[in-house]
Amino acid sequence: TATAAAAAAAAAAFAAAAASTSPPSFAPTAHADAAADAGAALPTESLADRVRGLRGRFLASLRRNEVAPALEQIPRREFMVDTELDAQLVDEGRARVGRLVDAVHLDNLHAALLTHRVRIETWDEMETQLVSVTAFDPPAPPKADAVHNFPIRREAPGDVRRLACVAFLRRVERCERML
C-alpha cells in the first residue's frame, strides 16, 4: 500500500540522516599511528576541521529543533553537552542568590531596627500625635487647605518635677533682682 511505502521511505530517509549525523570516530587510525611512530606531529587542521564539523552539526540540530513542531521539540537543556559545568554554574548561582537574600534580609532588619528606635523616641512618646485635616474642596490660594495640630511630647515624671524646680528658682531670681 501507499502508506507502507511512504513509511518505509521515511524510515530510510531517517536512517540516512542518522548515519550522516553520527559522531565521527576519534579512534586512532593506522595513518595516525604511522605518523606518530615516524615522529611527525598529527595534522591539527584535521582536528580543527572535525571540531568545526561537530559544531556545524550541533548548530544545525538546534535550528532543526527550533522549526520543529512544538510536540516534537527537544528542551534546550537536553542539548547541554557539559553537564558538570552546568551543575557547577547552577550551584554557584544558587549560592550567589542565597548570599544576596541574606544581605537584603540584613539590610531590611537594620532599617526596621532604626525605624523602631525612631518611632519609640518620637511617635510613641507623644501625648498627641501630629494630625492634619485637609479640605475636600480647597479654598482660594491665599487660604490654607489643611489644618495641623502640634504634637505634644509626653513629659516624664522626673522632668515635670525638674521643670517645676527650675520655674521656682527663676521666680526667686526675678524677685531678688527687683529688690
From TrEMBL:
Keywords: Cell projection, Coiled coil, Cytoplasm, Cytoskeleton, Repeat, WD repeat. The keyword Oxidoreductase does not apply. The keyword Cytoplasm applies. It comes from the Eukaryota. Its main location: other. This is Uncharacterized protein. PANTHER family: CILIA- AND FLAGELLA-ASSOCIATED PROTEIN 43 (PTHR14885:SF1), CILIA- AND FLAGELLA-ASSOCIATED PROTEIN 43-RELATED (PTHR14885). GO terms for cellular component: axoneme. It comes from Mantoniella antarctica. One of its GO terms (biological process) is cilium assembly. Pfam families: CC_Cfap43 (PF25828). It is found in: Cell projection, Cilium; Cytoplasm, Cytoskeleton.
